[in-house]
Amino acid sequence: MNTKMRVPVRPAVGKIEEYKPGKLVKGAIKLSSNENPLGPSPEVVKAIIKILESGDLKLSVYPWEQDEDTLRAEIARYLGTDVETIVIGAGIDGVLDTLVKIFIGSSDEALIPIPTFSLYESLVTIAGGIPQYIPRKRDGNFTIPVDELISASNDRTRIIFLGSPNNPTGNCISEDKVRKLAESVPTAMVVIDEAYVEFADSSLVNLVNEYENVLVLRTFSKAFGLAGLRVGYAAIPEWLESPYKKVAIPFSVNSIAIKAAIAALGDKDHLRRSIELVKSGREFLEDNLQGLSKVYPSQANFVLVDVSPRKSSEVCNTLEKKGITVRDCSSFRGAGDSFIRISVGTREQNEKVVEALKKSV
Ligand SMILES: Cc1ncc(COP(=O)(O)O)c(C=O)c1O
Description:
By secondary structure, the chain is α/β, with parallel strands linked by helices. It has two domains: about 10-40 and about 270-360, Aspartate Aminotransferase, domain 1 (Alpha-Beta Complex); about 40-265, 3-Layer(aba) Sandwich (Aspartate Aminotransferase, domain 2). It has helices at about 10-15, 40-55, 65-80, 90-105, 120-125, 145-150, 175-185, 205-210, 240-245, 255-265, 270-290, 310-320, 345-360; strands at about 30, 85-90, 110-115, 130-135, 155-165, 190-195, 215-220, 230-235, 295, 300-305, 325-330, 340-345. The strands form two sheets. It has a seven-stranded mixed sheet, sandwiched between helices. Helix 2 packs across helix 10, helix 3 runs parallel beside helix 10 and helix 4 (about 90-105) runs parallel beside helix 5 (about 120-125). Pyridoxal-5'-phosphate binds near residues 92, 117, 195, 219 and 221.
């Protein structure tokens, strides 16, 4: 028997790339992953220590359903809408994984306006589905060409992915456009990914009440500073709760993360400080980089910068040598090779990246 033979991997696996996270270089200023420069609320840290020390939370037992129910109720209260059906997962990533399993089978299609978050295409491809890529308009703000999306849809289209604010372009989609898509493509779920919405002017979560084919994704990774704990959620139409619960991995959000997310929702001051820091830092970056290279208007906690005629990889390497990591966007499908994405940091970090860029582009 040939013990060296390898078990065949599904062909779909060969079609996808490994997820490329923002670069982490020890000791460097990390502006590559859109994290919260303030970190989590101190109340969250205190709550975790307290529940572990008091023995109120036993790590030897599976997460309690009651705690999950409390978190879902607190999220609904935080959203402040009539949306009642909330599901949670291990980050938006985990929620997306479940949604794609629900809707995408062999040869089902998904519409993906590019450039955008790469996980959408990886999950669809792994599920045996077909991602249809529609380039965003190069109109200075990467607007979604809604009529082109509608023309590209067919009766196998099951999901339309809309990052809003979108990563890496930073812009939002308008309510009118989402309505038009939801009404024109009723065979598809319109998935609005609002990972960065706390930093934006408005949310589209209210549309979940109106349409059976619209849902909104949110996360504790960005404005709440809990990326390391992996908690995300979705506001969904009621009918989707049962399929979601059947398909989701049981206990995918761990008990510490559930308690931490509840505590995070209780500290409104920390949330407000995080949002203010991002909004003022974003303005600082936009104002100070504008003369240097083209900076795209952003509603998120990062800015997209076109460094042409330089290559993004060159500029990222130069910055890294100066102790700052930012995101080279050439790995985003359809982005080309001259875009970098800079996460908004503390005032000091923002000043340093501006200084370093002045000498690099
Ligand atoms: C648009 C978008 N959605 C989702 C995520 C992942 O969110 P989470 O940490 O909740 O999995 C990211 C992460 O950067 C993102 O940019």
